[in-house]
Amino acid sequence: VVVLGLTAVGAWITVSVVRAPLNTLGAVAFDRELAIPDLAESRVEDGVRVFDLTMQEGRSDLGRGPDTPTWGINGAHLAPTLRAARGERVRVRVTNRLGEASTLHWHGMHVPARMDGGPHQMIDPGDTWTPDWRIDQPAASLWYHPHPHGQTARHVYRGLAGMFLIDDDAESALDLPRDYGIDDLPMIVQDRKFHGDGTLDASTSLFQSEGIIGDTVLVNGTPGPYVDVTTRTVRLRLLNGSNTRPYHFEFDDHREFAVIGTDGGLLPAPVSVRSLPLSPGERAEVVVAFRPGERVRLQSTPTPGGSRFAGGDDHLEIAEFRAAHHLGGVATVPDRLVAVPPIPEAAATVTRSFALGGTSINGKAMDMARIDEVITAGATEIWTVANSGDGVHNFHIHDVRFQVLDIDGGAPPPHLRGWKDTVWVPRDSTLRLIMRFGHHTDTEVPYMFHCHLLRHEDEGMMGQFLVVPPGSSTDAADYSAHTG
Ligand code: C2O
Ligand code: CU
Question: Which of 296, 293, 287, 220 has the alpha carbon at shortest distance from 253?
Answer without folding.
Answer: 296
